[in-house]
UniProtKB/TrEMBL annotation:
It is found in: Secreted. This is Poly-beta-1,6-N-acetyl-D-glucosamine N-deacetylase. Keywords: Hydrolase, Signal. InterPro entries: Glyco_hydro/deAcase_b/a-brl, NODB_dom, Polysacch_Deacetylase. Its EC number is 3.5.1.-. GO terms for cellular component: extracellular region. The gene is pgaB. GO terms for biological process: carbohydrate metabolic process. GO terms for molecular function: hydrolase activity, acting on carbon-nitrogen (but not peptide) bonds. The lineage of its organism: Bacteria, Bacillati, Actinomycetota, Actinomycetes, Mycobacteriales.
Length: 265
């Protein structure tokens, strides 16, 4: 039987997140309670790339594996999330939007939604064992880009992060979770080895390694909901999310088809 693994998707972690990030944020106390639950119930943390690698090679997974991922690269990861993760001995993967970095300078791009990590903080987190992944450069809807800008978003995001941490960056999370076969092919061609989507189902070795699904943790995920997610109730909890994702995917395909007809992509 193929083992399914929860890959949890977080964003901001703070008491007073910006209005733009609040819905997808969690309070530090909530993250602490969630990690305590994972430890109490015997879950073993893995990085995103370690899980993807085990799926690809068929290696044996640890007892009750779980992956914690944090998107965008908010400053509160270093200030709030990392100390909590460290206290419980849990690894994590942070998918950083390179153009949103606080001191990105001439490389600044896109519109950050809150305070962001600095290059020095990214470097310090990597040195401390946090896995740094890419989240594109300017956080666009990758599936709506023409081929050339798509390639540049994937290339520049990875290159800047590698220059910062002095190590390869081979994991990617698609902004907004959107991808298509064309986007996934471009990600592979850009040198990534695996990528994260959303989809709100558990991941398994039968999944496309460039579309590993994650479960969304939000401000509204209270302790009982989190416990249900981790003990098998995720199918029902995320049913509405999956329906919305399927509906939105059809809209996005139509939108891109219209752009092709108009010659915009």
């Amino acid at each position: 039987m193929t083992e399914s693994v929860p890959i949890l998707m977080y964003h901001a972690v703070g008491e007073n997140p910006s209005a733009a990030t609040r819905r997808l944020s969690v309070a530090p106390r909530a993250l602490d309670e969630q990690l305590a639950f994972l430890v109490r119930h015997g879950f073993t943390g893995m990085s995103f790339s370690d899980l993807a690698g085990a799926f690809e090679t068929g290696d044996t997974l640890p007892e009750r594996p779980v992956v914690l991922t944090f998107d965008d690269g908010y400053a509160d990861f270093a200030e709030c999330a990392w100390p909590i993760l460290r206290s419980y001995g849990f690894p994590a993967t942070v998918f950083v939007t390179s153009g949103w970095i606080a001191d990105a300078g001439s490389h600044a791009a896109g519109a950050p939604l809150d305070r962001m990590l600095t290059w020095a903080q990214v470097r310090e987190l990597a040195a401390a064992g946090i896995e740094i992944g890419a989240h594109s450069h300017s956080h666009p809807e990758l599936d709506q880009l023409a081929d050339a800008p798509l390639r540049e978003e994937l290339r520049l995001g990875r290159t800047l992060l590698e220059d910062c941490i002095g190590a390869p960056v081979r994991t990617l999370a698609y902004p907004f979770g959107y991808s298509t076969p064309r986007v996934r092919h471009a990600a592979r061609a850009a040198g990534y080895r695996c990528a994260a989507a959303v989809r709100n189902i558990r991941a398994s070795s039968s999944d496309d390694i460039f579309m590993l699904p994650r479960l969304t943790i939000r401000r509204s995920t209270d302790s009982s909901t989190f416990a249900s997610i981790m003990t098998g109730g995720d199918k029902q909890i995320f049913r509405r999310d999956r329906l919305l994702t399927a509906s939105w995917a059809a809209v996005r395909r139509s939108r891109r088809a219209g752009k092709r007809v108009l010659g915009h992509v």
